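Q: Could you fold this chain for me?
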Amino acid sequence: MIDETQRVMLIPKIREGIVIDHIPAGDGVKVLAAIRIYPGMDEVVLTLGLNYGSTKLGRKDMIKMAATDLPEEILDHISLIAPGVSIKGIHDYQVDKRFVIELPELIENKLRCRNPNCVTNFERGVETLFNCIDINNRHFKCSHCERIFRLDELELLNPLL
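A: Sure. Below is the predicted structure, expressed as structure tokens.
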């Protein structure tokens, strides 16, 4: 058992790259899977740490990657899996930029509507569109059928299909 008062580095520091921090415990694998489906990202060296102690979350996951940039589409995808994570740019072992990913107000063609009667589920070419109606409770409304869902009730679409 590790004494919480000791500072133990379980994932080594990186010289150049990106750290995705404050991922809710258990969601790190989902974030990793989302990153890896994008072209070129399957070649990036990644380290995944699971279930670290966190004063902010209690427990958290973390990803360190030897990439200098994350495209906007990947950041959007991550925001749907784990909104509130922090992205840190690392240069010469130091954090040189930091920002937090939040849920978008509008989600276009990234989620599947759970209503089987929604036009997006039976007509080809109709893209999904969800509007955030309650950011705190993560409620989104389908623009086509107008049903309201919690974010965790909606299925992520594979962006590459």
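A (continued): The chain has two domains: 16-100, 106-156.
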